């Protein structure tokens, strides 16, 4: 999986009818800056409102996932989002001149092709992965649906579907490498059972559905004259069915398990609404949009709790700033140069590393015989980490002093001893105004929280 965030090199558009609304719309993917994420924009509405691709904005799950914000609604977002996740594109503005992305052929492949034609561009910011820290489970006994997310330092998905149908047997599909999404999953099309068609039309859905953008599975005997009725319903001059295939108009499948693969595609798109790239093993039995979104909400709740959002340190990877580069930014020198490496840095957050050794000067007098790192120096190391974030947010950091001017909600959770490696993460909690900025900071040793504080920093111009 990629380490850096990505966007596209230029804007690209696709046009087509929406599956459920039947409205023809043009959807344009627009490059976006780091940490922008996925946002839809209804350019056909007054003020062109923005809708964040966020699970908290889901308002309807009738045969698709619909989101709404700022008075604007976007229907059936899952195929679009799956294409972006599958290509590991992090930041895109998705402009629509209608209420729903085009269904195209019922899969994500047309979106994938368009995005690849636009070109993918790496950005100078690390991907903000959420590594699921514990078993997350969702079950609906009424629908016999069960989904789980398990800890894994990768993103893998496995889906099982079983419709008790003579046409579709129990099917499984897996994706163990997200880079294989284009080849193995993207072209798998949406499907519907024949017995569902008229009910969906009566529910004012699938107005744009036809045999070019969905597979219709014939799961019962078709009565005389019914094919003529279906041809009118689907706006086709003629429809037919081969009993050996069990698919209306005898459409050829891309894969024998295309239905399970499409359910996996939907799952990827729905889980994109968590708002961050995920590292987890996802297992899904008989999933649907409601269950997918329910699991996404559980994962987002974990994110909000702070669980699993612990920065990972790989000493084999080159740092963003080494000790010499830190010295060029911060004026601190021995014995007050507290940070050894910066291992992650973007517009809103920074991660620094402090290796604690018995040779630290303060251990000579701080609890001799029981060396413990003073809490105030843990806070100093955290503040210096935040100082890197503050200084790199301006174009001319050499012209400023970063001062810590406020501390709140400071807690020391565990002792820090010689031999510990402390990982500090600081994040902006508000935009900088008149040189004043607020940050939250946390320090971890071996994945355990050791200290935390809210800080206020001031950038003062050097005289």
From TrEMBL:
Biochemical pathway: Glycolipid biosynthesis; lipid IV(A) biosynthesis; lipid IV(A) from (3R)-3-hydroxytetradecanoyl-[acyl-carrier-protein] and UDP-N-acetyl-alpha-D-glucosamine: step 2/6
Pfam families, per database record: FabA, LpxC
Active-site residues annotated for this sequence: 289, 366
Sorted UniProt keywords: Cytoplasm, Hydrolase, Lipid A biosynthesis, Lipid biosynthesis, Lipid metabolism, Lyase, Metal-binding, Zinc
GO MF, one annotated term: UDP-3-O-acyl-N-acetylglucosamine deacetylase activity
Location (main, coarse): cytoplasm
Location of the protein in the cell: Cytoplasm
EC code(s) of this entry: 4.2.1.59, 3.5.1.108
Biological process according to GO: fatty acid biosynthetic process; lipid A biosynthetic process
Binding residues annotated for Zn(2+), in chain numbering: 79, 262, 266
Gene Ontology CC annotations of this record: cytoplasm; membrane
Reactions catalysed according to its record: a (3R)-hydroxyacyl-[ACP] = a (2E)-enoyl-[ACP] + H2O; a UDP-3-O-[(3R)-3-hydroxyacyl]-N-acetyl-alpha-D-glucosamine + H2O = a UDP-3-O-[(3R)-3-hydroxyacyl]-alpha-D-glucosamine + acetate
Required cofactor(s): Zn(2+)
HAMAP family the record matches: FabZ, LpxC
Function, in words: Catalyzes the hydrolysis of UDP-3-O-myristoyl-N-acetylglucosamine to form UDP-3-O-myristoylglucosamine and acetate, the committed step in lipid A biosynthesis.
Family listed: In the N-terminal section; belongs to the LpxC family.
UniProt protein name: Multifunctional fusion protein
């Amino acid at each position: 999986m990629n380490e850096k965030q990505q966007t596209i090199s230029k804007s690209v558009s696709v046009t087509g009818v929406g599956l459920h609304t039947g409205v023809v719309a043009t959807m344009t993917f627009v490059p976006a800056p780091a940490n922008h994420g996925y946002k839809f924009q209804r350019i056909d509405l007054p003020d062109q409102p923005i809708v964040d691709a966020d699970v908290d904005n889901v308002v309807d799950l009738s045969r698709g996932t619909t989101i709404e914000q700022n008075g604007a609604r976007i229907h059936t977002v899952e195929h679009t989002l799956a294409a972006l996740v599958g290509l590991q594109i992090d930041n895109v503005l998705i402009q629509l001149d209608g209420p729903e992305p085009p269904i195209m052929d019922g899969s994500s492949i047309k979106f994938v092709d368009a995005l690849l034609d636009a070109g993918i561009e790496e950005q100078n910011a690390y991907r903000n992965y959420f590594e699921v820290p514990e078993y997350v489970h969702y079950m609906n006994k009424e629908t016999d649906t069960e989904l789980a997310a398990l800890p894994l330092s990768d993103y893998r998905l496995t889906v099982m579907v079983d419709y008790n149908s003579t046409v579709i047997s129990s099917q499984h599909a897996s994706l163990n490498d997200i880079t294989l999404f284009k080849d193995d999953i993207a072209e798998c099309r949406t499907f519907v059972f024949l017995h569902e068609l008229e009910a969906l039309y009566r529910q004012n859905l699938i107005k744009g559905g036809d045999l070019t953008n969905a597979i219709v599975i014939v799961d019962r005997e078709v009565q005389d004259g019914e094919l003529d009725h279906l041809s009118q319903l689907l706006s086709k001059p003629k429809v037919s069915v081969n009993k050996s295939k069990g698919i209306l108009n005898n459409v050829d499948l891309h894969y024998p398990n295309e239905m399970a693969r499409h359910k996996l595609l939907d799952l990827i798109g729905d889980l994109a609404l968590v708002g961050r790239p995920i590292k987890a093993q996802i297992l899904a039995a008989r999933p649907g949009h409601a269950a997918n979104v329910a699991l996404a909400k559980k994962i987002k709740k974990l994110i909000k709790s702070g669980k699993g959002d612990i920065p990972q340190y790989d000493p084999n990877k080159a740092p963003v700033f080494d000790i010499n580069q830190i010295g060029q930014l911060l004026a601190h020198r021995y014995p007050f140069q507290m940070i050894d490496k910066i291992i992650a840095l973007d517009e809103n957050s920074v991660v620094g590393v402090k290796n604690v050794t018995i040779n630290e000067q303060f251990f000579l007098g701080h609890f001799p015989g029981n060396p413990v790192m003073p809490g105030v120096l843990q806070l100093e190391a955290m503040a210096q980490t935040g100082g890197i974030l503050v200084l790199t947010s301006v174009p001319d950091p050499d012209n400023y002093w970063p001062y810590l001017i406020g501390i709140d909600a400071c807690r020391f959770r565990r002792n820090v001893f010689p031999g510990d490696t402390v990982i500090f993460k600081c994040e902006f909690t508000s935009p900088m105004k008149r040189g004043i900025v607020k940050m939250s900071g946390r320090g971890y040793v071996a994945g355990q929280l050791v200290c935390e504080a809210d800080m206020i920093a001031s950038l003062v111009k050097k005289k």
